[in-house]
Design brief:
Layout (H helix, E strand, L loop, with lengths): L5 E12 L2 E12 L3 E5 L6 H9 L6 E6 L2 E5 L2 E2 L7 E4 L11 H7 L8 H14 L15 H14 L4 E5 L7 H18 L2 E6 L2 H7 L2 E6 L2 E6 L1 H6 L4 H6 L4 E9 L5 E6 L2 E6 L9 E6 L4 E4 L9 E10 L4 E7 L4 E7 L8 E6 L4 E5 L21
Parallel strand pairs: 3-9, 3-10, 7-8, 8-9
Antiparallel strand pairs: 1-2, 1-4, 4-5, 5-6, 10-11, 12-13, 12-15, 13-14, 15-21, 16-20, 17-18, 17-20, 18-19
The structure holds adenosine-5'-triphosphate.
């Protein structure tokens, strides 16, 4: 899917644990220097896929190639240390008996470098992650954020072709998480390495990625640019997992032009995108992105606006998020405006068809059940 030469090629990867299929026929390609984020709920197979790439886990079938080298296929299975890659773990995984300098330098042990050159590279990396003053400390003398910076420096120092990240920010608190996220984004891109990064946090995924792969029950269900995933989710599962204001049910009134349909909902007619052209009268569900909802202001409401009641309002600094209940009972969260509307007031909403997706009505899948109800939908991208 990219113009970049393919660096990492995964073909039909399969992995089971006893009777449980953790990876089901996963194929993907990542271009040189691209940043791929694998996103999915707990148990979707993210860690298993990453561990197969690293060589810690041996797949049951399929192949993995990196820069023209076969890492795994049939009887071939290169051990982790013979793969041109480095991994950053959730729990840092530093050597407790080594200083920051020694931990970073350890990654160079196989590169027959002159001592002075190795020392120079380690010092340069520690400086880039802002740890020069902490170079002689042991892991237990460093904060979580500092330990993760050492791990980042250790991953980068040997200049591997592939960098793997296993939820590296999940043990840090919000403020630090944001700062380290920016450092990971800039330092990895500066290194030219190809990156595979796993997370279950959609906001983190969208902020970091050149490409996002969404995993559902061991299958890669969509792989594309963040904008594609946001504007053209392949399934209700993908749409839900990447942030919705809410869902409306109804019937197709007019199978309109250019992939648009008018859906008659309990709250009124809503124009929405239709990835698969539904027929007139079909029962459908309209999934609505937060960015697609606007509160209609003042005296001159649009004729196609839908009425609702403000149930809750939350001040967000830049403006207010509202929870709005529509006629028929559907609720929309994260309805944003600069100026807040009081609880209990009647408001009119407009929907941008670009951010409203029509799918045939069907019972939720097992994987949908893992998406937390009212998972904080992401900010407008
Ligand atoms: N060593 C193992 N033995 C048995 N089952 C396993 C093993 N490792 C993973 N699994 C199972 O495989 C499935 C995928 O697990 P995996 O850890 O890859 O998911 P994940 O998406 O990374 O989830 P999380 O975000 O919770 O880490 C899960 O159902 C898990 O229970």
């Amino acid at each position: 899917m990219t113009m970049h030469p393919v660096q990492l090629r995964v073909d039909r990867l399969v992995k089971s644990f006893s009777a449980h299929r953790a990876l089901e026929d996963v194929s993907l390609e990542v271009g040189t220097g691209r940043f791929l984020v694998l996103l999915g709920p707990s148990g979707s197979g993210k860690t298993t896929l990453l561990r197969c790439l690293a060589g810690i886990e041996r797949p049951d079938g399929g192949s993995i190639r990196l820069g023209g080298v076969t890492l795994t296929e049939g009887h071939t299975h290169l051990p982790p240390e013979r793969r041109d890659l480095a991994m950053v773990f959730q729990d840092y995984a530093l050597w407790p008996h080594m200083t920051a300098t020694a931990n970073v330098g350890y990654a160079l042990r196989r590169r027959r470098l002159e001592r002075a050159e190795a020392d120079r590279r380690v010092a340069a990396l520690l400086e880039r992650v802002g740890l020069t003053a902490r170079a002689d400390r042991y892991p237990h003398q460093l904060s979580g954020g500092e330990q993760q910076r050492v791990a980042l420096a250790r991953a980068l120092v040997a200049e591997p072709g592939l960098l793997l990240f296993d939820e590296p920010l999940s043990n840090l608190d919000a403020d630090l998480r944001e700062r380290l996220r920016v450092e990971i984004a800039t330092l990895t891109r500066g290194s030219g390495a190809t990156v595979v990064y796993i997370t279950h946090d959609q906001a983190e995924a969208f902020a970091l990625a050149d490409e996002i792969g969404v995993l559902e029950s061991g299958r890669l269900v969509q792989h594309g640019a963040p904008e594609d995933i946001y504007h053209r989710p392949a399934s209700p599962f993908v749409a839900r997992f990447t942030g919705l204001a809410g869902e409306l049910t109804g019937r197709v009134e007019e199978p309109g032009e250019g992939g648009r349909v008018v859906v008659r909902t309990d709250a009124g007619p809503v124009t929405a995108s239709a990835p698969t052209a539904p027929v007139r009268g079909a029962a459908v569900r309209v999934l609505v992105r937060p960015a697609a909802v606007t509160l209609d202001g003042g005296a001159d409401p649009a004729p196609d606006a839908v009425e609702g009641t403000v149930v809750d309002t939350a001040y967000r600094g830049r403006g207010y998020d509202h929870v709005v209940e529509l006629v028929g009972g559907a609720r929309l969260v994260e309805v944003f405006t600069r100026h807040g509307r009081p609880r209990g007031s009647t408001v009119r909403l407009r929907f941008d068809p670009e951010g409203c997706f029509t799918f045939p009505e069907q019972a939720p899948t097992e994987a949908d059940a893992q998406v937390p109800v009212n998972a904080a939908p992401m900010e407008v991208v």
